Amino acid sequence: MNEYKLARGEAKFADLIWSHEPITSMELVKLCEKEMDWKKSTTYTVLKKLCDKGIFQNDNTLVSSLIKKDEFYARQSRSFVEDTFGGSLPKFITAFIGGGKLSAKLVEELKKLIDQHKEG
Q1: Which residues fall within 8 angstroms of residue 37, CB to CB, at 6 or more apart?
Q2: What phi and psi values does residue 96 have, to the nearest 5 degrees?
Q3: How far is CA 97 from CA 75, 83, 103, 106, 112, in A?
Q4: Are 28 and 22 in contact (CB under 8 A)?
Q5: DSSP letters along 13-73, please?
Q6: Most Cβ neighbours (<10 Å): which of 24, 68, 70, 92?
Q7: Number of other residues whose CB lies within 10 A of the CB of residue 29
């Protein structure tokens, strides 16, 4: 899968698939009509677009993901940090905090996360 950012409607659509997969394409059409007020043609157009991007597959009318939601958004997050902060996680965290303070609980969670992913 190449890096691909989802538009708002595509993200909601993708979340529907991830929440209900595997799902038949007809069930997906009904779900999108109910949840997003989409017509059948819109559902199939967006599904084809996301299948072409390598995110989902429609195999004999059974729709499922080729990449799980957590992995998709992890890739997007890494790409965002790379593009926006030159790959610097400390710069991203500094911007995210925005001059605020971290709670002791959050600091402990971050320390544990760092320890889990520390090299060597």
Answers
A1: none
A2: -65, -40
A3: 21, 19, 11, 12, 18
A4: no
A5: HHHHHHHH-SEEHHHHHHHHHHHH---HHHHHHHHHHHHHTTSEEEETTEEEESS-HHHHH
A6: 92
A7: 19
Instruction: Please report where in the chains the tokens 């190449």 appear, as a residue.
Output: 2
- pTM over 0.85? The answer is no
How sure is the predictor about 119, in pLDDT bands with cuts at 50, 70 and 90?
confident
For every residue of 64-101, which 3-state class applies, written as one string? Answer: EECCCHHHHHHHHHHHHHHHHHCCCHHHHHHHHHCCCC
- Residues 109 and 62: their CA atoms lie apart, in Å, by 40
Six-digit token pair at 112? 């544990």
- Nearest-angstrom CA–CA distance, 42 and 33: 10
Q: pLDDT digit string (tens) for 24-70?
A: 999 999 999 999 999 999 999 999 999 999 999 999 999 999 999 99
